[in-house]
TrEMBL record:
Residues 416-675 form the Polysaccharide lyase family 8 central domain. This is Lyase. InterPro entries: Chondroitin_lyas (IPR008929), Gal_mutarotase_sf_dom (IPR011013), GH-type_carb-bd (IPR014718), Lyase_8 (IPR038970), Lyase_8-like_C (IPR011071), Lyase_8_alpha_N (IPR012970), Lyase_8_C (IPR004103), Lyase_8_central_dom (IPR003159). PROSITE patterns: TAT (PS51318). Residues 691-755 form the Polysaccharide lyase family 8 C-terminal domain. Keywords: Lyase, Signal.
Length: 803
């Protein structure tokens, strides 16, 4: 065995670092006479120990004391029930597959194999951390080593043919195994470490990162690089660490298709799934760990393209973070995991941003910490330091930020972010935020897989989420997904045709054959549209949203379907919690708070839901209302979920388009956080909003007080003062300083030419993008655009001077 395997300096370095960490235990006195290579690998092991155990916290202070006690109790339970047998390490975690292949049953067996390593990792953390009640416990050490040997001899070894889920063999198991090897390094012999490394080499060979394709992209690629890097650290292989570092480089550049980060801030995984809040979180955390592990070493990540990741903190992640939660619109099938809601998914992202800041510039680090402090302080619904699923390291990082008196917490970033590459949008205004989920030929309706998110069918059918600054932050957190009517998701237009669990296929396989999805934004307001084709349905519809200062104007037209079932547009479906007594008023008349209650609101002008906001129906509308209790189980939407029955009260408003509609439509305003008085006043001000068009050909609005005209041209034509010769999205805003901005996009990504005329006197053009080939001013503005097909639906902004 070469000196690379030596453990003689591990404890010296570890003791210094863990003393500073205030947590991890030094196991024994250091040995003498280390070589330079010994020092390098020992230092890496010490760094990794601090990264996965946490640092800078007191084990006798809360929330750490309770968490360490719980960690010890969990580890004690695993130690006491350890029962090595043929095919299992614990009786409830059988990994032996009688018919090994890749069917769902085999997925379950491979998951139990990975889970066995994760349990050993929990035990190793309890052994190394102070305050667990098992710190340095000899029986626990023996149990951990016994478990490693058993799994290596039986299942995770060189030569074993894998079965079930590839992830269990290439990421889940080896990550946990290598963490244990680092934490228990002094308790393992060179021969044992050699066998464990050989097993990792077998399942995660260098070829796993040879090409940036398949399961080796995005977050998965970062996970694989973590495995390779730790394999090098544990096995003393400089080549493995260098390979891990170099294999990160394909993750950094912006992509134009498939998995990864896009120029508009989109993040895609599994080819068609917007995943900023789940796989994106994994990637962000994994990169933060690897950057920190290798910083200051000869393997430091120096690829200049890593700045793309740093820039993405505010371009890709921040738009989806609100008061500590990460929006469900970019969480994929993770929304069906009952143990981790939008807040609990958001907190690890905050902690990862803090960690990533250690590798960024001083200015970036300070700004990010200030953003995180604001998000964490404002999370009144689910305070991060009380998050039971947040790791000790995450807790320590967030507490360090909250306790940092030099940081001024930054407020929620305002503005509109449109993400054409993943058919998503977020809108953030003082007091509230909203998010929109759509689907097109590049983006799936929804993702199901591994028995998860079985009824997410309509989440891409124009679902409109919204939250308030000090209210409704638990709207989608409090058992929303297992109890909501999945055919009545807020904002969606859907057929009541009964769909089977998992309809459309696994892993985002089903995408609608539509091109016109997207819109324009000036970063403050936006016009967004979706040509909707229903999942496994004949439903067709044109849907538009105009995101303004205090409202979202929602229009729908051309709604037709031949499913033989009713078609509905859900104005909203608010989760009122277990009690559900929020007052509901329609045109000034209070409605019953008893459940169940339902009514048809004929000719309704406005409605208001106490503690939430208001709804205005221009010109009046016939709207259905329902207050009811709904019950469900997480198991209903996730085969691994709890079987406990949960009940929540809902207030639902929807437009019933009838059975087999031929040309249905709707129009309403959503006013988040508005009082009853403000809602009534908006409804009474009939001149505030002008609906210029709401047809299958165009949808547009004008708001004179904002100087705004916005139109989604599904086909060319004339709407108000705007004339377009082809499909496009347009938003014009006149400003008080005598200028105006004209925002134009080609959501279909197909226009090789476009002519737009604004019938308004314009004296000069102040600026224009290169896509404008001709700009004619005078009694009207005539803009001729060249090829827009390569703009990826991005907004083209022209600034003009008015007479």
């Amino acid at each position: 065995m070469t000196s690379a395997w030596s453990r003689r300096t591990f404890l010296a370095t570890s003791a210094v670092l863990t003393a500073a960490a205030g947590g991890a235990l030094a196991l024994a006195a250091p040995r003498a006479s280390a070589t330079a290579s010994d020092d390098a690998y020992a230092a890496l092991r010490a760094t990794w120990t601090a990264l996965i155990l946490g640092e800078g916290f007191s084990p006798t202070a809360e929330p750490f004391k309770s968490r360490l006690t719980a960690l010890g109790a969990q580890a004690r339970g695993w130690r006491d029930t350890l029962a090595p047998a043929d095919g299992s390490l614990w009786p409830d975690a059988v990994y032996a597959d009688p018919d090994p292949d890749t069917d769902p049953e085999s997925y379950g067996f491979s998951a139990k194999m990975a889970e066995s390593f994760i349990r050993l990792n929990t035990m190793a953390q309890a052994y190394r951390q102070q305050g667990t009640g098992l710190t340095g416990d000899s029986a626990l050490r023996t149990a951990i080593v016994t478990g490693l040997e058993h799994l290596n001899s039986q299942v995770y070894r060189a030569g074993q043919v894998r079965y079930g889920n590839w992830y269990s063999w290439q990421i889940g198991a080896p990550q946990a195994l290598l963490d244990v090897c680092v934490l228990m390094y002094d308790a393992l012999t060179p021969a044992q470490l050699g066998r464990y490394c050989a097993a990792v080499d077998h399942f995660v060979p260098d070829s796993a990162v040879a090409s940036y394709t398949g399961t080796s992209t995005g977050a998965n690629r970062v996970d694989l690089c973590r495995v390779l890097a730790l394999r090098g650290v544990v096995g003393g292989s400089a080549a493995k660490i260098a390979l891990a570092r170099d294999a990160l480089s394909p993750v950094f550049p912006l992509v134009t298709k498939g998995d990864g980060l896009y120029a508009d801030g989109s993040f895609i995984q599994h080819t068609t799934v917007p995943y900023t809040g789940s796989y994106g979180s994994v990637m962000l955390g994994g990169l933060g760990l690897l950057f920190a592990l290798l910083k200051g070493t000869s393997w430091e990540v120096t690829d200049p393209k890593r700045q793309v990741v740093f820039d993405a903190v505010e371009n890709a992640w921040a738009p989806f973070l609100y008061n500590g939660l990460v929006m469900d619109s970019v969480a994929g099938r993770a929304i069906s995991r009952g143990e981790v809601d939008d807040h609990r998914r958001g907190h690890p992202i905050l902690a990862s941003i803090v960690l990533l800041g250690r590798g960024a510039s001083a200015a970036e680090n300070t700004r990010w910490r200030s953003l995180v402090k604001g998000w964490a302080q404002r999370d009144y619904y689910s305070p991060p330091l009380s998050n039971p699923s947040l790791s000790l390291t995450g807790l320590a990082r967030l507490k360090s930020v909250l306790d940092d008196t030099s940081l001024t917490p930054l407020p929620e970033p305002e503005g509109h972010h449109l993400f054409p590459d993943m058919a998503r949008a977020t809108h953030r205004r003082p007091g509230w935020a909203a998010a929109l989920s759509m689907a097109d030929k590049r983006i799936t309706y929804y993702e199901t897989g591994n028995g998860e998110n079985l009824r997410g069918w309509h989440t891409g059918s124009g679902m409109l989420y919204w939250w308030g600054d000090t209210f409704a932050n638990g709207q989608y957190s409090d058992a929303f997904w297992p109890t909501v009517d999945p055919y009545r998701l807020p904002g969606t237009t859907a057929s009541r045709k009964v769909l089977a669990n998992g309809a459309g296929g696994d892993w985002g396989a089903a995408v609608p054959d539509v091109n016109w999805v997207g819109g324009v934004t000036d970063r403050k307001r936006a016009a967004v549209g979706q040509y909707l084709k229903g999942l496994s349905s004949t439903l067709l519809a044109k849907k538009s949203w105009f995101f303004l200062d205090d409202t979202v104007v929602c229009l729908g037209a051309g709604i037709r379907c031949q499913d033989g079932t009713a078609v509905e547009t859900t104005v909203d479906n608010r989760n009122l919690g277990p009690v559900g007594n929020a007052p509901f008023t329609v045109d000034g008349s209070a409605k019953p708070v008893t459940r169940p209650w339902s009514a048809t609101l004929t000719g309704a002008s406005w409605a208001h839901l106490g503690g939430h906001g208001g709804y205005v129906f221009p010109g009046g509308a016939n709207v259905r209302a329902l207050r009811e209790n709904r019950s469900g189980r997480w198991r209903d939407i996730n085969t691994g979920g709890s079987t406990e029955t949960l009940t929540r009260a809902y207030l639902t408003l929807w437009v019933d388009h009838g059975q087999n509609p031929a040309d249905g439509s709707y129009a309403y305003q959503l006013l988040p956080g508005a009082s009853e008085q403000r809602t009534a006043a908006r409804a009474a001000d009939t001149g505030w909003l002008g609906v210029l068009a709401n047809t299958d050909d165009q949808q547009g609005v004008s708001v004179p007080s904002l100087g705004l005209t916005a139109v989604n041209f599904w086909f060319g034509g004339t709407v108000g003062p705007l004339v377009a010769d082809a499909p496009c999205s347009v938003m014009v805003t006149e400003h008080a300083d005598g200028t105006a901005t004209v925002c134009v996009s080609d959501p279909m990504r197909a226009r090789t030419s476009l002519t737009l005329t604004w019938n308004r006197a314009v004296s000069s053009v102040l600026s224009k993008p290169s896509t404008v080939t001709t700009a004619t001013t005078g009694t009207s503005l005539r803009l001729v655009f060249g090829d827009l097909s390569g703009t990826r639906g991005a907004t083209q902004t022209v600034k003009v001077r008015l007479p």
